Amino acid sequence: MGAPGSGKTTLSRNLAARASVLVIETGNLLRAEAKRGTALSDEIKSYQSAGNLVPSAVVQRVICAELDRAKGDLVLFDGFPRNMPQTDLLTGILQSHKLDLTTIFIFEITLETVLNRLGGRRVCPHCGAIYHIASNPPSRAGRCDKCGTELVQRQDDSPEVIKRRFENYNRETMPVIEHFEQQHAAQCVRISVEGSPDAVLKSVREILKI
Ligand code: AMP
Fold this sequence. Notes:
Blueprint: H1 8-18, E1 22-25, H2 26-35, H3 41-50, H4 56-69, E2 75-78, H5 84-96, E3 104-108, H6 111-120, E4 121-123, E5 130-132, H7 159-183, E6 188-192, H8 197-208
Helix pairs in contact: 1-8, 2-3, 2-4
This protein binds adenosine monophosphate.
């Protein structure tokens, strides 16, 4: 759990590169579905480009499809649950896939750091690699190191959409964190993510013992 731009996806990918973890990147699964040109695409695009949450039934569908496609012993949900109805959805998904809820990471970060990160974030539209113009630039300006594709700014990383995503986070996701801290206190771990991605990865690996 963490604000937009707190580094959830960066951590998930760094972890998956070093340990056997199935990562469910909710935002990216939705973006991929939107690109596929299916019946759901236009609906997903309209929510994502405005910075609003996609309806939970759609989220459930993409998550379950991914869990069924790629099974894993250790599953990391990145960007889910994001509102209270999705916490019930999580319970159902865990039960139907015979998974236990073991750890809930709560990322702590200041708004100032997040705004700086999102404003400088660039992504590869082809392979999904993530860069930052100052802290993690590609070796050739504006081009992906992995596949050479021209980097873009995510449509929802514009200042007004960032603001909407924050409002949604405070209104919809903060209550989920409060709920977890009340109902699953033993599983909740707050960590500061102000430091480098490597420092965050190290803390998470120590906690998960992987
Ligand atoms: P992210 O890539 O995690 O920043 O998510 C980008 C966008 O995808 C969000 O602003 C939402 O529009 C959508 N999204 C991601 N995760 C969820 C979720 N759990 N529920 C609803 N919408 C989501």
